[in-house]
Amino acid sequence: MAITPVAVLMMTLILLMRPSLGGGPSIRMGCIPGSTLVPYDRDGISCEEAQMSKVVGIDSSTQSCKVLVVDAASGRIEAIGRASHPDGTEVAPDAWWAALVEALAQVDLSDVVAGAVAGQQHGMVCLDVDGGVIRDALLWNDTRSAAAAADLIAEFGDGDAEAGARWWADAVGSVPVASYTVTKLRWLADHEPHNAARIAAVALPHDWLTWKLLGTGASMTS
After folding, report:
1. Which of 2, 62, 151, 168 has minimal Cβ neighbours within 10 Å of its Cβ?
2. Contact at 8 Å (CB) between 79 and 68?
3. β-strands 54-60, 112-119 pairing
4. Interior CA angle at 12 toward 107 and 53, to 5°?
5. CA 186 – CA 189 distance, rounded (Å)
């Protein structure tokens, strides 16, 4: 059976994120130049092996997916992959997955020991009880929820926008605007109640990609 780059990264992430009997990762972090962490070595990996390790960073932005394989010790970039995302403010999440697969296929993951996914914020990926995507994701730059943001502010201030803004700032540290996911959820409840009723979980774009890499159905963390 052929092992694809995605499968390699998936298996790596699963191994790194599983509960550890030793209470820590395999790599002796104290071996990395500049690290102030106390060295430890759960699985017998030497300093030399740790310094030879490579990591992969995935940036799933609004316009494209970029993948960098980096030497963990020196920071030297070993390989770069890139694939475009569709235009627009409403995108099917499967397009991000396809771009990730395409970008990963452009790099060598054979020596990669860890990976992480970052990307655009505030996109609304709505999932049902089976982990299926309910509708296309509304991105941060979709402003149809501007009225929903104003409604959320007013409602928590008993009609007073200034009081509502203070309530939100005190409660969560920010005041809703159209780019925030919470306002998109309110828009969905108001305009697509049939879809809102199916929601079992909500993810940001990079959370959804991490979840996919670990295998749909795994516990989702953010």
Report:
1. 2
2. yes
3. parallel
4. 65
5. 5
